[in-house]
Design a protein that fits this description.
The structure holds two protein chains of two kinds. By secondary structure, chain A is mainly alpha-helical. Chain A contains twelve helices and no strands. The N and C termini of chain A lie far apart (about 45 Å). By secondary structure, chain B is an all-alpha fold. Chain B has a domain of about 80 residues: NADH-ubiquinone/plastoquinone oxidoreductase chain 6, subunit NuoJ (Four Helix Bundle (Hemerythrin (Met), subunit A)). Chain B is about 70% helix and about 0% strand. Chain B is globular. The chains are: A mainly alpha, B mainly alpha.
Chain lengths: ~325, ~230
């Protein structure tokens, strides 16, 4: 009974995090973007600085009619948002936010492989949406999504492999246990590669060619309305949380911090994740969109060689210090 | 890991064994739908279910590492590549009437023969081997890595070389196709089959300056010929 209660509690916490954190990131994005662009952003909903704007947006989405185009492949069209969103919920289970077994949803033996594998499944949702909409813009968006995933999956995996080599384990809590502060400069190239490739996998600006609204409307999501569209948006923000959390855990030391290690590790994890999420928003406001060929070139000619160099460096240092 | 078969019976299955069987049935059903459906993209999506079911089977056998790699490589990359190819070429919504092969019975025969051979070999080899589910995981990353790089190094390296050769071959082929497409377009099949009056510019450099109308007619001819060749 106690064990079942423990499992239920963990699942509940992960679920609550999954429901609230993406909204917090979304609201932060409203505000940060507005201030970087010299305007106020939402100010009226809820009174204080428009804090309830996303709740209002959610109610609006729920009220809209759920339209499935007549020519669409009905079942695949309706299934796609769930396929896009659920993997991020599952990934959250494996991300440790503090030391010990109490601060992670489920300790997994091959944690890195688990999170990367399940994150890759999420992209299938975009592909299904792009194909099933029976719309040229959607199909173009789906094609670009697939090309982007194929290009950026490799550097992401290689960068993660570098950390696994350094730690000598593929378990996420195990990597954190092995972390030392000097890993930060040692793995910095891998960290940048991982973060950039993750951004590209999430299709966040400047890598938002698959949803480029000024060219192909909204890519794979063009035909979606109401709650299903909201689910795709939620998937994007949940993806930001997952990517920032993973970068924190793999490269920035997770719950390790200069002080306050006892019992306050989770604060460090959340703080680092929040800073990275801010960087994601910052990049969106700052950089213009990369063209499709520039996207591919960046991955194959810069990120893949850099991650390979990082693996070589990791191997050399690892052999030397043993 | 290996216990004698006498301690285990087939008559009183445990929960894990029942789950294994049920997932196996689902996987088998999804695989059948994959090869029989007339909707190309649906076939690819059913393939996702099949491969995912296989990953669950690995998980039930405590081979966690293999399971996640299965999802990462097959679901995350191979199926995405497959869908990419389908979308690039031809992926209509609904049934494709031409998505059927005349080799149906030959394919079925080969599939059944291969399955029978595999099942026979596996049953013969591992009939008395049991995975101990209660003890430490016998398929964990550490165990898998140790056995891979101690007992199975030679096959591992041979496979690596094979993959490297495939990689190099793919690069060579793609570069060759690029070099051909950058040279003046000559449809050799149209030349040999259809109109002998159009000269091959590569063999006859002077003849390469043939009137544009002639070469155009040769190009126009080619699709019809390709249809005829099928």
């Amino acid at each position: 009974m106690n064990g079942a209660l423990d499992v239920a509690l963990r699942l509940l916490v992960v679920f609550v995090v999954f429901l609230t954190f993406p909204l917090i990131v979304g609201q932060t994005e409203h505000k940060v973007m507005a201030h970087m662009q010299g305007r106020l952003g939402p100010m009226y909903a809820g009174g204080f600085h428009g804090w309830a704007q996303l709740v209002a947006d959610g109610v609006k989405f729920a009220q809209k009619e759920d339209v499935v185009p007549a020519g669409a492949d009905r079942r695949v069209f309706q299934l796609a948002p769930a396929v896009a969103l659920l993997p991020y919920l599952v990934v959250l289970l494996a991300i440790p936010i503090g030391p010990g077994e109490g601060a992670v949803g489920q300790v997994l033996d091959a944690g890195i492989f688990f999170v990367l594998a399940v994150m890759g499944v999420g992209v299938l949702g975009s592909l299904m949406a792009g194909w099933a909409s029976a719309n040229k813009f959607s199909l173009l968006g789906g094609l670009r999504t697939a090309a982007q995933l194929l290009a950026y999956e490799l550097p992401m995996l290689l960068a993660a492999a570098s950390v696994a080599m350094a730690a000598g384990t593929v378990s996420l809590p195990g990597i954190l246990d092995a972390f030392h502060w000097w890993w930060l400069p040692w793995q910095i190239v891998g960290a940048v590669v991982f973060f950039v490739a993750g951004l590209a996998e999430l299709q966040r600006p400047p890598f938002d060619m698959p949803v480029a609204d000024s060219e192909i409307i909204f890519g794979a999501y063009t035909e979606y309305t109401g709650l299903r569209f909201a689910l795709f948006l939620l998937a994007e923000y949940a993806g930001i949380i997952v990517l920032c959390g993973l970068t924190t855990v793999l490269f920035l030391g997770g719950w390790h911090g200069p002080w306050g290690a006892d019992g306050l590790g989770w604060v460090w994890t959340l703080l680092k994740t929040a800073v990275l999420a801010f960087v994601v928003i910052w990049l969106r406001v700052t950089y213009p969109r990369l063209r499709e060929d520039q996207l591919q070139k960046l991955s194959w000619t810069l990120l893949v060689p850099l991650s390979l160099a990082q693996i070589a460096l990791t191997g050399i240092v690892k052999v030397v210090i043993q | 890991m290996t216990l004698s078969a006498a301690e285990h019976g087939f008559l009183s299955p445990t929960g894990v064994e029942i789950a294994f069987l049920l997932v196996g049935l689902v996987t088998f059903g999804a695989a059948l739908v994959t090869v029989t459906t007339r909707q190309l993209v649906h076939a690819a999506l059913w393939l996702v279910v099949t491969l995912g079911g296989l990953a669950v089977e690995y998980l039930l056998l405590t081979a966690e590492f293999i399971a996640w790699v299965q999802v990462l490589i097959y679901v995350g990359s191979v199926v995405v590549l497959l869908l990419f190819g389908l979308m690039l070429t031809k992926a209509p919504i609904g049934r494709s009437p031409d998505a059927d092969s005349g080799n149906r019975w030959a394919a079925l025969t080969v599939a059944v023969a291969a399955a029978a051979a595999l099942v026979w070999v596996v049953v013969d080899a591992f009939r008395t081997t049991w995975v101990d589910l209660d003890g430490p995981a016998s398929g964990s990353t550490a165990v898998t890595g140790a056995s891979l790089f101690q007992n199975w190094v030679l096959p591992f390296e041979a496979l690596s070389v094979l993959l490297l050769a495939a990689l190099v071959g793919a690069i060579v082929l793609s570069r060759k196709a690029k070099a051909e497409s950058s040279s003046p377009p000559v449809n050799s099949r149209a030349v040999t089959g259809g109109s002998p009056s159009v000269p091959d510019s590569r063999n006859h450099p002077i003849g390469g300056q043939a009137p544009a109308g002639q070469s155009k007619s040769a190009v126009q001819q080619s699709p019809a010929e390709q249809e005829g060749a099928r």
